[in-house]
Amino acid sequence: MKALALLALLAAPLPGHAANSLDPAPQELLQRGEYLARAGDCAACHTAPGGKPFAGGLPLATPLGAVYSTNITPDPKTGIGSYSYDDFARALRDGVAKDGIRLYPAMPYTAYAKINDDDMRALYAWFLNGGVQAVAQPNQDSDIAWPLDVRWPLAIWNLLFHDDQVYQPNPKQSAAWNRGAYLVQGLAHCGTCHTPRGMAFQEKAMNERGTGYLAGAALGGWYAFNITPDTHSGIGGWSDAELVQYLKTGGVPGKAQAAGPMGEAVEHSFQYLAEADLQAIATYLRSVPAVSDGERKARFQWGKPAEDVITLRGQDVQNQNDGARLYLGNCASCHSWSGEGVKDGYYPMLLKNSAVGALQPDNLVQVVLGGVHRKVGDQELFMPGFAGTLNDEQIATLVNYLTAQFGNPEIKVDSARVAEIRQP
């Protein structure tokens, strides 16, 4: 709960300022800035559902109260319209707004500090000089109560945990490796979710030289998987082509389907990156130290088809909490009775699925509760959530059936944990 409470301190409001007078930026610079903003996935946090792009207002519910993302459009009063380049770079690299207000480190300035000057200027040009439409939408204060809303201790936090140095290429590595490192450590901020956190909510490592970098972490009710090249725990069994496919589309049949925060990253960010950049990311991920966290040990056998579902067809429902019946009534039409999916992977297989075979059930519970909605190109993937139709006991029964039949039979979840995950 403490980690979740700290995660809640996500979006410190950026204050409004007077208008800025800027000359039009060249089109090439604006296009580069837009590409970099997609690489940084800025829209994910700063665009509310149904809201104007980058105008903020996305509610993030926590046990301590709601936090709302901020307006980062060039509106002079409610956005960042008067930020100079130095103001902009300071906010992204040091987590300090124009008037000195410190941003909470869950805003990934610890990663954005790696952005080089050329890319920072392109981002600045796009956000403030023609790429983003100004929206007059006031920022909403968080409901975080005192003393957690006091920000001066963040200066001490920065001294202890923040490295504000721009990424320096490693001359011993290839251009592709350095490009991948620059993206993973910086704009893509992969470690923000995939690296374990310490007691002060700091990432335990910021690059491949630190212990546990990208080894997987629980965050905001989801578990970001180990993406080190360990064979059993990470991506050691993935080919480069599969890694690129996953980043580009969010799905690799027989391995994983992106949902939750990762699904959003694919939809808003990774699908727009150049093939060379995705290949570079794969190259870099291959090189980080492998970390074993116990996932998918060799003794584990990936599930088995659910033959018991076939025997229930046409029978009257006598027990709504029976796992096989819940599966037949809610899942089998898309994932098939055998769990092998249908339609060329559009409805993914549950056998050899990372969420079903994990050592903890949280991601699977999240998907059953909230569903999946991911749009990549012209293809829109949709799975309905069952939070409104199944109670906590039924969700737990269904999840335990899925893990027993198709994934890791050693993993169980109870209705109390489902209720905890269900609460925002």
- How much of the sequence lies in strands comes to 5-15%
Total strands: 8
Q: In CATH, what is the class of the largest domain? A: Mainly Alpha
**CATH fold naming of the largest domain:** Cytochrome Bc1 Complex, Chain D, domain 2
Report how far apart the termini are.
Answer: 12 Å
Instruction: Name the average pLDDT.
Output: 85
Shape: globular
Give the neighbour order of strands across the main sheet.
1-2
Structural class: mainly alpha
pLDDT < 50 stretches: 1-21, 295-300
Report the major sheet.
Answer: 2 strands, antiparallel
The CATH architecture classification of the largest domain is: Orthogonal Bundle
Pattern of helices and strands: HHHEEHHHHHHEEHEEHHHHHHEEHH
Individual helix count: 18
Report the helical percentage: 25-40%
Whole-number tally of structural domains: 3
What is the radius of gyration computed over CA atoms, rounded to a whole number of angstroms?
A: 22 Å
